[in-house]
Amino acid sequence: IPPSDFIAIAEERGLIVPLSEWVLRRACMDAKRWQELRLAVNVSPIQFRHKDFVANVIRIIEEADFDPAQLELELTEGVLIEDADAAEAAMMDIRAHGVGLALDDFGTGYSSLIYLRRFAFDKIKIDRSFLDKLGKHHKSASIIRAVLALGRSLEIPVLAEGIETKAHLDFLKEAGCDEAQGYFLGRPM
After folding, report:
1. Which residues of 120-130 are buried (b: 16+ CB within 10 A; e: fewer)?
2. pTM
3. Whole-Å CA distances, 55 to 21, 125, 146
């Protein structure tokens, strides 16, 4: 069952917080075997807005005896929209514990540039939709290069999602992309 199907149902039924906590706990336990790799875990907007979000993340990291510097939480712009002040406070708190934060699905939301200025993200993730159109829509390559230049100028690493072909990877290498993920490189676990 793809996440696009079950996440919406879990949110609708009020199960996303316990499900997300289980996923984070399991991921931290599994990732302890990966010495030099960072663990990236998506965070649901509902989970992020939960009053005990930061405390729950820290508790899970401690229970799993996981190095917080190896953890990166992926947030979409949707987590920032409702209450930017509360989001900023939670982000500062989680970063103070050594956990990294990535802005996921960059370029698909409302006002990404404002978020980059206001919030302390450790990484920008270019949404897969830009690579999907590479070679089919002449502006996709320009947008990707512009986001990479933006990341370099802000000193924020950029990761491109959706690498499904060698041509995608070759383009990103030539353009100077910092990191890449997608089925061409490895399946989700």
Report:
1. ebebbbbbbeb
2. 0.90
3. 11, 25, 37
Is residue 131 within 8 A of residue 164, CB to CB? The reply is yes
Give kind and range of the element (H or E) at residue 160: strand 158-160
Residue 181: helix, strand or coil by DSSP? coil
Q: Tally the C-alpha atoms within 13 A of residue 175's C-alpha that lie toward its C-beta.
A: 27
Contacts 24+ apart (CB under 8 A), 153-156: 154/116, 156/116, 156/121, 156/122, 156/123, 156/124
User: Over the stretch 76-97, which tens digit does the pLDDT of each residue have?
Assistant: 888 887 788 899 999 999 999 9
What's the Cα-to-Cα distance from 109 to each of 18, 52, 125, 126, 147, rounded to whole Å? 27, 26, 12, 11, 14
What pLDDT, on the 0 to 100 scale, is given for residue 120?
82
Mean pLDDT across the chain, nearest whole number? 90
Half-sphere exposure of 158 (CA within 13 A, CB side): 24
The distance between the two most distant Cα atoms of the chain, rounded to a whole number of Å, is 49
- Total residues belonging to the chain: 189
The pLDDT of 113-129, averaged and rounded, is 88
